Amino acid sequence: MTALPVAGLAHVPGTALPEGTFTISRLENDQLADVLGQSPYLDAGHVHPLWAYIATQRGIGVGIAELCAIADFDVNDGPMLGSVDIEYSGRLQVDVQYRVVGEVVGIERKSGRRVGTFDVLTYRERLLAPDNSEVATVTNSFILPRRDR
Amino acid sequence: MTSLTVGSRLGPWMLAAVRAEQMRVLADLLDDPNQIHLDPELVRSLGMGDRVINQGPANLGYILNMLTIAARDFELERIHVRFVRNVFADDAVTADGHVDDVDRDRVHCTVWLDVGDAERAVEGTATLRRQLG
Which residues lie closer than 8 Å to A98 by C-beta, 6 or more apart? Predict the structure, then answer.
C-alpha cells in the first residue's frame, strides 16, 4: 500500500492543537470501568489505563469534529480509529487537573480494497501533571475514508 | 506475585456481548459525536454493516482490562495497537495475549482482541514494567 502526500493539505503536519486541561472524575472513572466490564476485584482507586487516551482526547482544545475539519473531513462521513500508541510515564490519578498539549504529526493518502481511498491523519498529544512532568504520550491515527476521491 | 515468563498466556478476558447501550455511555465519556456508534441507519447508509459499531478505544479498553488482571504486579509502560476490523453491537469479544520476551524488569507482549471464534479485531504489542517496592 503506497502512501502519498495529500494535495491541498501539505500545511497540516506540524499544526499545533489548542492546549487544554482535563480532570478524571471518580464518577466517570467508575462509569468507564462499568461499561468496559472491568473486573470488580481491582483495587479501589484504580484508574483505568484507557484514561490516558480519553483524557488527552477530551482535554485537548479541539473535539473530534474539529480535528477532522483540520484535515478537511466531515465527522459525519465516518472517521475510524486506525491505531493508538500510548506511552505511560507517570501514574494516572483522579481529581488531578492535567494539561494537554498536542500537534498533528502527518497526513497521508492511501487506498485499500475494503475502504477504497482514505487518508491517515496522525496526531500526538501529551498529558502533563501540574508540575509539568509527563504522565502519558498518546499518538493516534484516524482513517478518513475519501469516498468522493 | 505474578510470574510472567516467555510464552506465558495473559488471557483470556471475555465479554459475551458488546451492548449498544454501553456505546451511548462511551460516546459521552469519549465526547465522541460519531453517529456510527449510535445510529444503525447511518451505518447501513455508509455500507459499513447493519449494527452500530463499537468505539475503537473501547476495544483497546478490553485489552487493557486483560493486561491489568494478568499482570497485577506490573505497570503498563507502553501499548501500541492497530484496529483491523470493526466490532459491532452484540458481538462477543475475547482479549488475549502472550509474553514474547522478558528483559530484566520489563516484559514484552503480543496482545489482541478477537470477535467470535477467532476473527482478529485489534492487534498490537505491550510493554510491562515490574512495580518497584
Answer: A21, A22, A23, A24, A55, A59, A127, A128, A129, A130, A135
Rounded to 5 degrees, what are φ and ψ at B58? -65, -40
Rounded to the nearest 5°, which phi and psi values hold at B4?
Answer: -120, 120
Q: Express each pLDDT in B80-89 by its tens digit.
A: 999 999 999 9
Check residue B63 and report its DSSP letter: H
Mutate to test the interface with B, among A21, A29, A35 (most CBs of B within 10 A): A35
Instruction: For residue B55, give the DSSP letter.
Output: P
- How many CB contacts within 8 angstroms connect chain A with chain B? 99
- Sign of dihedral through CA atoms A31, A35, A38, A41? positive
Tens-digit pLDDT profile for residues A109-127: 998 877 789 999 999 999 9
Q: A63-83, pLDDT tens digit by residue?
A: 888 999 999 999 888 788 999
Cell of B9: 498466556
User: Touching check for B17 and chain A: CB below 8 Å?
Assistant: no
> CA-to-CA distance for A137 and A100, rounded, in angstroms?
10
pTM: 0.92
3-state secondary structure of B58: helix
Q: In this structure, what C-alpha cell is assigned to residue A64?
A: 473530534
Alpha-carbon distance B54 to B19, whole Å? 9
For chain B, the distance separating the N- and C-terminal CA atoms, rounded to the nearest angstrom, is: 12
Cα–Cα distance for residue pair A136/B119, rounded to 1 Å: 31
Distance (Å) from the C-alpha of residue A76 to the closest C-alpha of chain B?
6
Q: Is B26 on the interface with A (CB under 8 A)?
A: yes
Q: Is it the case that residue B97 has pLDDT exceeding 90?
A: yes
